[in-house]
Design goal:
Oligomer: single chain
Helix content: 55-70%
Strand content: under 5%
Shape: elongated
Distance between the termini: 48 Å
Largest sheet: 2 strands, antiparallel
Number of helices: 7
């Protein structure tokens, strides 16, 4: 169970219980293995690996294409869920920004403005306050396609004459 994770031999739970009798209950071990094998890191390891590994770290059976494909599909499902959640958050933020702009340009009393927008009057002020707070913050960074090494200024200067070096 090293880091980074390696694909585990099938039915490794029986091997663990045989090697450490009475140390773990079956439900404890099942819960641990479910968390471990459901992690992003483990699924990524399944996608990239060719073999499974036993308790001693020795390569074992070849990883089946069926298991590799299941890992690819699960990672894609998780990515799609995350992207959908982020898109919804961006849409809601844009809606609050529009609401704030319209609220500030309007001359109606708050109760009438809320009614015209189909919002309960009690919900209007918290929405406006949140929109004002968001307007004062930078927009959120995209969730995917981030530069894994961070922005250039955090990596330090490049040596003189290096490809892509910044001008002095």
């Amino acid at each position: 169970f090293s880091n980074p994770p390696k694909p585990l031999k099938l039915r490794i739970q029986a091997d663990i219980q045989a090697r450490t009798p009475g140390q773990f209950t079956k439900p404890q071990l099942s819960a641990f293995l479910r968390r471990y094998t459901g992690s992003h890191a483990y699924l990524n390891a399944l996608v990239k690996a060719t073999h499974r590994f036993d308790l001693d770290g020795n390569p074992g059976d070849e990883l089946s294409e069926e298991h590799r494909n299941a890992a690819v599909e699960e990672l894609a499902r998780r990515r799609a869920n995350t992207q959908a959640r982020i898109a919804l958050e961006h849409e809601q933020r844009a809606n609050r920004a529009t609401l704030l702009k319209e609220y500030e340009a309007n001359t109606l009393p708050a109760a009438e403005f809320a009614a015209s927008k189909g919002i309960a009057e009690a919900e209007l002020e918290p929405l406006i306050a949140r929109a004002r707070k968001e307007a004062s913050e930078p927009p959120p960074a995209p969730a995917f396609n981030r530069d894994r090494h961070g922005p250039q200024h955090k990596r330090g200067p490049r040596p003189e004459g290096a490809r892509g070096a910044r001008p002095p």
